Amino acid sequence: MTTPHDPAPKKKRLTFGGLFFHILFSADTWRVAIGLALAVILAPHLLAFDRTGIGRYVMFITVVVVVWALSKVPGHWIARQMRLLFPGR
Length: 89
What we know:
about 90 residues, mainly alpha, 4 helices, about 0% strand
């Protein structure tokens, strides 16, 4: 409960540092990064090069989505380790 003598709450400001650390500490950031890395490696091997260009893009996006879904535990572990590296944030 607030009283009339309580100071007004400070507004949070969006800063570059705050945005950077939010992205760094997000598990989804690491899940997407793992998905992109594995898609770059796996997509060319999963679909032959004689296919259409759109087929390669679909395979790339499919690999990213599947790896994102499977990388929940590693993504959370990496985000937790990053939070331990920067305890003041």
